[in-house]
Amino acid sequence: MFRHPGAIPGQPDPNRMQSAAQQLYEAMRGAGTDEKAIGRIAAGFNFMERATVAQVFQQMYGKSLEGELKRELTGNVERMLRIMFQDKYTAWAKLLNKTMKGAGTDEKRLIQLTLIMSDYDFQQVSQRYQALYQKDLYAHICSETARSDWAKLVKGWLRGNNTGVADPNQVAQMLHTAASGSGTDEDVFVEAMCNASPEIYRQAVACYCNMYGKTLEQTIKKEFAGKSEDAFLLCHQYLMNPALAVSNLLHESMHGGGTDDQLLIFVTMAFSEFFRGQLIRDAYQVYGDLQRAIKIDITGKYEDVVLILWGFK
After folding, report:
1. With contact defined as beta carbons under 8 Å apart, do 66 and 85 qualify?
2. Structural contact between residues 305 and 37, judged by C-beta atoms closer than 8 angstroms
3. pLDDT tens for residues 257-273?
4. Tens of pLDDT, residues 64-98
5. Of 66, 138, 168, 296, which is the most buried if we count CB atoms within 10 A?
6. DSSP class of residue 298?
């Protein structure tokens, strides 16, 4: 799998953590809570630092930051800011468990939560999952998925080692052959996406376009449908540029009949620190203007906080 930038942060600065905890306390004092101030504090730290700030807050004031945020805030603003100060990988593990809990698995959400994982993400989420539920995450996913094309991709992605095929021209030819004729050989697509390195994959995509006069993304959209199209397209985008995959999920969260708040909150929590501002704005351009999309889809303090976390305020 591909590692997005900044996936493994350094050690937090104790002085900054204490200052942030004090600022959070001040933002929740008195008659009203300053949601924008809390959002700006969250935006100023990476995920490891935010979790440390929550611990420091507890030590300094004898109160749980999560509990205080829950008491002071409501609705999606509360859910957004509360999850921002939780351990990211614990929150990710809980979402995955919720996705697979009960009578039926939410297959679309499972695709969104897994095919956006780097190798480091999967390692960390798996550890949290085992601790929380006494289950192996990979084995649980395998038990909840059928033999569909997208399920093969998810399993291959989580077990991929990027040590397979190494010749970009060969990969391009394999993919073309797999998509030719009456049926698609999805196993070849799984092999290319899960076992070629991101560098080789991107070179193969360029070769494919030069050799066959069309993009691989066009071929994926033609050859796959439904959840499989969603899965292979998300995986393709992640390998090309993780910001494109993040943009895909942001678009999914805000287009259609209503906002998918769970997805929007998850993507913001997991990726806003890596792809903030102009970087995510540029990647989102294929769908339109991200800042405008946020303003159209959500309102009020929720809108303000989301814009701050993505670097637009």
Report:
1. yes
2. no
3. 889 999 999 999 999 99
4. 999 999 999 999 999 999 999 999 999 999 999 99
5. 168
6. -
Cα dihedral 214, 211, 241, 110, rounded to 10, equals 70
- Residue 149's region, left for phi above 0, alpha for psi from -120 to 50, else beta, is alpha
Q: How far apart are CA 188 and CA 174, in angstroms?
A: 7
Q: Where are the alpha helices (DSSP H) in 28-167?
A: 35-43, 47-61, 65-72, 75-84, 88-100, 107-114, 119-133, 137-144, 149-159
What's the angle, vertex CA 34, arms to CA 32 and CA 38, rounded to 5?
140
Contact assessment for residue 186 and residue 211, using Cβ atoms and an 8 Å cutoff: no
Question: What element of type H or E holds 307?
Answer: helix 300-309
Residue with tokens 């960390």: 124
One-letter amino acid for residue 145 of the chain: T
**Do 223 and 184 meet the contact criterion of CB atoms below 8 Å apart?**
yes
- The domains of the chain, with CATH numbers, are 14-87 (1.10.220.10), 89-145 (1.10.220.10), 168-240 (1.10.220.10)
**Contact of 155 with 164, CB cutoff 8 Å:** no
Nearest to 34 by CA among 85, 76, 83, 73: 73
Q: Is 106 left (phi over 0), alpha (psi -120 to 50) or beta?
A: beta
Distance CA 195, CA 235 (A): 12
